[in-house]
Amino acid sequence: LIPFPPAGEDESANVAARGQAIREALRQQKIQAIHPVLIIPKHSVTVRAVFLPTTEEAELESMAAFEAQKIIPFNAERHVISHCALARESIQGTRVLITAVDEPVINEAVNILLAAGIEPALGEVSTLSLYNAWRYEVARTGTSTEGLQAIIHIGSAHTEIILIHKGALLV
After folding, report:
1. Do residues 67 and 76 lie in contact, with contact meaning Cβ atoms separated by under 8 Å?
2. Among candidates 14, 12, 13, which has minimal Cα distance to 4?
3. Distances from the Cα of 155 to the Cαs of 3, 40, 43, 158, in angstroms?
4. Which of 99, 123, 126, 154 has the fewest CB atoms inside 10 Å of its own CB, making it the most exposed?
5. pLDDT of residue 129
6. Do residues 28 and 116 make contact, with C-beta atoms less than 8 angstroms apart?
């Protein structure tokens, strides 16, 4: 856990101070960031699962962007929108997870990492990161995916519960 300095009124000073705290913690532990992933907490992201009537990737992208406009509660034009195909159901369509994060939220996180000298290789919502870690562990250990399973991430300010049924993420 890296203690951040108290936030002041100057946002750029806050970003610089947090970046320096991360840089110093990594230096002290002799850790080098290689292909770092920025994980955005679920509570900062709008997430919805939808069924789209196509399996074509190009169509999924435009349909997901259109659907995202319906789920973003405010300032849709300044949100970063992404999607992930959860399950392709032959010719009927695809179950898709749509995510939208307000640009100031993601920009602050990226700027803190850049101030620490770290350029993130990609960004991901915590829900998908935890699910991908679970999938990796299942593949590594051969653990059964039958039935209902839960991943419970207890953070200092928020708790995230992820449900998985027969290997499929329930959203």
Report:
1. no
2. 14
3. 15, 13, 11, 5
4. 154
5. 92
6. no
DSSP readout, the chain? Answer: --PPPPP-S-HHHHHHHHHHHHHHHHHHTT---SS-EEEE-GGGEEEEEEEES---HHHHHHHHHHHHHHH--S-GGGEEEEEEEEEEETTTEEEEEEEEEEHHHHHHHHHHHHHTT---SEEEEHHHHHHHHHHHHHHHHT----SEEEEEEE-SS-EEEEEEETTEEE-
Cα 65 to Cα 82: distance, rounded to the nearest angstrom? 8
In terms of Cα–Cα distance, which of 133, 126, 128, 130 is closest to 157? 126
Q: CA–CA separation, 104 vs 6, rounded Å?
A: 20
pLDDT tens-digit series, residues 18-64: 999 999 999 999 999 999 999 999 999 999 989 999 878 888 888 99
* Residue that has been written with the tokens 């995916």 in this structure: 145
pLDDT beyond 70 at 1: no
Q: How far apart are CA 13 and CA 4, in angstroms?
A: 12
CA distance 53 to 61: 12
Question: What is the rounded distance in angstroms from the CA atom of residue 85 to the CA atom of residue 94?
Answer: 7
Nearest CA among 133, 136, 129, 135 for reference residue 166: 135
